[in-house]
Amino acid sequence: METRIDEIADRVYRLSTFVAAAGPPAGFTFNQFLIDAEEPLLFHCGQRSLFPSISAAAARVLDLGRLRWITFSHVEADESGSVNAWLAAAPRATAAHGRVGCAIWLTDAADRPPRTLGDGEWLDLGGKEVQRIDTPHVPHSWDAGLLYEKTTGTLFCSDLFTHLGDPPALTDGDIVGPAIAAEERFHFTSLTPDTGATMRRLAALEPRRLAVMHGSSYSGPVAPALEALAGYYDDKLRQSLRANLSPTQEEL
Ligand SMILES: [Fe+2]
Ligand SMILES: [Fe+2]
Fold this sequence. Notes:
Layout: E1 3-9, E2 12-19, E3 28-35, E4 41-43, H1 51-61, E5 69-71, H2 77-80, H3 83-89, E6 94-98, H4 99-109, E7 115-117, E8 122-124, E9 129-134, E10 145-149, E11 154-156, E12 170-171, H5 176-186, H6 195-203, E13 209-211, E14 217-218, H7 222-244, H8 247-251
Parallel strand pairs: 4-5, 5-6, 6-7, 11-13, 12-14
Antiparallel strand pairs: 1-2, 2-3, 3-4, 8-9, 9-10, 10-11
Helix pairs in contact: 6-7
The protein binds fe (ii) ion (2 copies).
């Protein structure tokens, strides 16, 4: 098992482990992101089984004794599974998550008390600054949220734009088509009346980079990609309502 390291924006490092057995035959990457700053931050912990490889890669980027923040989008093995292993390896680090996630899981599960981040709250990392954005059910889970880093314009978008295979660390090519193909295969996104609107709210930030959890990160035009993905989910919701509402409800 090899975890590769690529700098996808200034002092933003992608740690990528390709797992051929996940999503066969193309396989699947599991990516974590390290922001190197005065107070370094990790986004995505990775599964416990990947921790030895991921943490060894992280230690090649920076001394884990410096790691200050451990964050993720939502509770799931690849997002938060190894949170306590990170807390043990990084004695200065605090796990941080949104209000819902702390309330329903992290406060109980973490070996040290977590820091609760409000929707829209900024964390000054010293040279880098991140904002927590609550995105309930986008990509999935009640506690979901994303991070936006201001100096590099990077949106850490978790499972949004998930695509298969082991593509380059960074691309400016099409990621919308591959993301739709993955959605059609796995149906991993919670489709709600707010799905498209939440993605358009992210587009309004006008990010310059997407840090994608599964697949390539993206340096092309981000807002149009988010708008296109939002449109796809809007269409999916309309089709589902048409197919499933009774005629009487439809008239309403
Ligand atoms: Fe997920
Ligand atoms: Fe994921």
